[in-house]
Design goal:
The protein is mostly helical and 179 residues long. It contains seven helices and two strands. The chain has a domain of 110 residues: Orthogonal Bundle (Cytochrome Bc1 Complex, Chain D, domain 2). The protein has a two-stranded antiparallel ribbon. It starts with a helix and ends in a 9-residue tail after the last helix.
């Protein structure tokens, strides 16, 4: 192949590129669409505010934890917890894994296991793991408490969360009464 043929190929590629760019400019000017000044309809979104000190999300309406917990099943919670068992132990005197041991978690202060290095967000949170706190955290841990190391996607179904919380509550020296 001589240099003349190579020049023809490069020229063809440049011409096609210029043609495509030129056609795009022409099409944009011919088919220009103006955005409306006022939207045709308004989509209402529930506002969520983040707490300034802790980073936890608080929703505007109160959650009826009693009705959520009524949907849970202890046996189902044991099955669902198998996902959690890769990172957490549930046995009495169980060792910490990637995450802290969860035996007797309900009613315990968040970030209080002395032999586990919590993220700064969990260590400074300072609240108690109540049924409500666990429910909110298990929806999506990273969104509930900004800065947590827990990368779990969460449990979307209320019945699944209630089942896991019942199972966690049951694995305790003194299970708390259900709401």
């Amino acid at each position: 192949m001589d240099s003349f043929e190579l020049n023809k190929i490069i020229a063809a590629i440049l011409m096609v590129t210029l043609l495509v760019i030129g056609l795009k400019k022409i099409a944009d000017s011919v088919f220009h669409v103006n955005k409306p000044e006022k939207p045709a309809y308004v989509v209402e979104v529930k506002k969520q505010s983040t707490a300034s000190t802790s980073g936890a999300i608080e929703t505007e309406e109160k959650i009826d934890i009693a009705s959520i917990m009524a949907t849970g099943d202890l046996a189902e919670g044991k099955k669902i917890f198998k996902k959690c068992a890769a990172c957490h132990s549930i046995n009495k005197n169980g060792k910490n894994k990637i995450g802290p041991a969860l035996y007797d978690i309900v009613g315990r202060t968040v970030g209080s296991a002395s032999d586990y290095k919590y993220s700064k967000a969990l260590a400074e949170y300072g609240k108690i793991w109540t049924f409500e706190e666990l429910n909110g955290f298990l929806i999506k841990p990273a969104a509930y408490l900004k800065g947590t190391k827990m990368a779990y996607a969460g449990l979307k179904k209320e019945a699944d969360r209630a089942s896991v919380i019942k199972y966690l509550n049951q694995n305790s020296d003194n299970p708390k009464p259900l709401p």
